[in-house]
Amino acid sequence: MTGRLYYDEPHLTRFSARVVEQLEWDGQPAVVLDRTAFYPTGGGQPHDTGSLDGVQVQEVVERAEDGAVVHILTAPLEAEQVEAEVDWQRRFDLMQQHTGQHILSAASVAHLGANTVGFHLADDYATIDLDQAPLTAAALAEVEALANDVVFEDRPVVARFVPDEEVPSLALRKPLAHEGPVRIVEIPGFDTSACGGTHVGSTGAVGLIKITRSERRGDETRVEFLCGRRALYDYQAKNTLLMDLAREYTVAHWQVGEMVHRLADELKEVRRALRVTRDALLDAQASALWHEAVLMEPARVVRAHLPEGSPEDLKHLAQRLVSRPGTVALLAAGGTGEEKGYFVFARSDDLRFHMGNLLRQACEVVGGGGGGRPEFAQGGGPAGAPVAEGLDVAFQALVESIS
Ligand SMILES: [Zn+2]
């Protein structure tokens, strides 16, 4: 079994080791060393990265059969003796998050009696699942405050293997998950946990523990948090966002929330006023079109191409027009330049013509498609569709069906 240097020396980043096995792991070159400071993925903590004689260590896993630590490499490694280096930035970040998790989990027990039933540590966020739900924001804020008190007190974090006879007397936060030698990580007077991971030497090095989000998941609550440098980066990003908004809208940063609500209210009011104005405009437009319509007994036929109109405008106009008895509306929009072409054909209930049939003929002209019921149909064609010609064809077909 590989000697694990990180158990006693979590700050060790450079070491020499002997290659005891060369192998392939999922098609990639890999080696086992006689001893390593590389942490393999496990216990919720992701693996370290780094290099062996300058060759990149991409992933580190523990082989289930014999507990050997397998270093998966980006290129083969021939040497028998290697100089190794662990990426300290990544390791220290993971140590901050992992130690922060111990503290946050212990604070949840101490303050709420809530146990941690899940832990996930990813490259950009970490979560614990607590066995209580719902948890109020105020309750979580109190847990967060307690956790940070422990950080600010800069208490020692001690990891050690305990003799078998001592195990029954340990006040472990969680029962042991598997058999074998027991390694405990202790924050004296606050928390004792069985754990094989890497941790900072004292709670002060965690820097800060910030809960960023929580979400109820059935009987559990998932709590997302950031520690140390991650919390700093998050603060920087959020501070920049808030200050940029405050500057842009010339308000103080604490007024940004209020400003957003005010803008939302204003937007609602403006939309309402716009709707009223648009309705009035459509009424006037419908009325003008109706008076210009061609009289062809028994119908009054409105034929109009509105290059700037939208499909919605056409529908609203058509509805207004055919609310008057004896009216047929053949409307088109767009079809100029890069604009798609649209048709809406409608008639009032007291007439018999089939709008769907007229529409199909218009769509054939513009190379598009559409359809509908006898009293209402819509369709269109591609950009630059000759909708005026389509309207002519539909109008002629209507004239023929009347005569
Ligand atoms: Zn741990």
Structural notes for this entry:
- By secondary structure, this protein is of the alpha+beta class.
- It has three domains: 3-86, Elongation Factor Tu (Ef-tu), domain 3 (Beta Barrel); 92-237, Threonyl-trna Synthetase, Chain A, domain 2 (Threonyl-tRNA Synthetase, Chain A, domain 2, 2-Layer Sandwich), CATH 3.30.980.10; 292-402, Roll (Diaminopimelate Epimerase, Chain A, domain 1), CATH 3.10.310.40.
- Helix content is 34%, strand content 31%.
- The protein has seven helices and 21 strands.
- The protein has a six-stranded antiparallel beta barrel. The protein has a six-stranded mixed sheet with strand order 16-17-18-19-21-20.
- Helix 1 crosses helix 2, helix 4 crosses helix 5 and helix 6 runs antiparallel to helix 7 (387-402).
- The longest helix has 36 residues, at 256-291.
- The radius of gyration is 36 Å and the shape is elongated.
- The N and C termini lie far apart (98 Å).
- 33% of the residues are buried.
- The model has no long low-confidence stretch (mean pLDDT 94).
- Bound molecules: zinc ion (ZN).
- Zinc ion (ZN) binds next to helix 1.
